[in-house]
Design brief:
heterodimer; A: mainly beta; 7-stranded mixed sheet; B: mainly beta; 6-stranded mixed sheet; globular
Chain lengths: ~110, ~110
């Protein structure tokens, strides 16, 4: 299995622009998680889906952030408009059940200028 | 609210010098405790899951143990390739079945 796939690996954009991060979970996994990692706050859960349905989005910082999972093999995290404080590494992870071990993708390093 | 505290924040060892990393947790009903390894520029890599006090798991030079309040990751005779950040996470019955991560221990093993 190829593991969790994320794209792009690096994104540099200017403040105010829309950013879309993409994730393909491991085939057969029914739970998908979006995390943000910074030096100051560590690894934070933003939102997670179970069977393509958003279960908990309480970690989404504000309305500028949105996430979708149109099918079992694809999810997006969108930031519109982006701000410099959104600069971080964003990880996608998937698992078989919501409380079993999660498998992480390589991450997208986002820089907002 | 679930809380996970890892110590020390950073640890430098000589090759072959065994040591332990600590993960203290406060949860409302532990469902599982997870250890991950993260290399620079990469995503966390799953190592172990522990479910109940007294449980132990081993993988090469690593052994994870669990009590009712904390977990230890023991590293025996480490090698430079064991250098990484080690993350601890918990899943509890009170957290909608999601993981809460600690801030990690950055381990450096010198040759």
């Amino acid at each position: 299995d190829a593991g969790v796939i994320q794209s792009p690996r690096h994104e540099v954009t200017e403040m105010g622009q829309e950013v879309t991060l993409r994730c393909k979970p491991i085939s057969g996994h029914n739970s998908l998680f979006w995390y943000r990692q910074t030096m100051m706050r560590g690894l934070e859960l933003l939102i997670y889906f179970n069977n393509n349905v958003p279960i908990d989005d309480s970690g989404m910082p504000e309305d500028r952030f949105s996430a979708k999972m149109p099918n079992a093999s694809f999810s997006t995290l969108k930031i519109q408009p982006s701000e410099p404080r959104d600069s971080a590494v964003y990880f996608c992870a998937s698992s078989l059940e919501t409380d079993n071990e999660q498998f992480f993708g390589p991450g997208t390093r986002l820089t907002v200028l | 609210e679930d809380q996970v505290t890892q110590s020390p924040e950073a640890l430098r060892l000589q090759e072959g010098e065994s040591s332990s990393l600590n993960c203290s947790y406060t949860v409302s009903g532990l469902r599982g405790l997870f250890w991950y390894r993260q290399d620079p520029g990469k995503g966390p890599e799953f190592l172990f899951t522990l479910y109940s006090a007294g449980e132990e798991k081993e993988k090469e030079r690593l052994k994870a143990t669990l009590t009712k309040k904390e977990s230890f990751l023991h590293i025996t005779a480490p090698k430079p390739e064991d250098s990484a950040t080690y993350l601890c996470a918990v899943s509890s019955s009170g957290s909608a079945r999601q993981l809460t991560f600690g801030s990690g221990t950055q381990l450096t093993v010198l040759p």
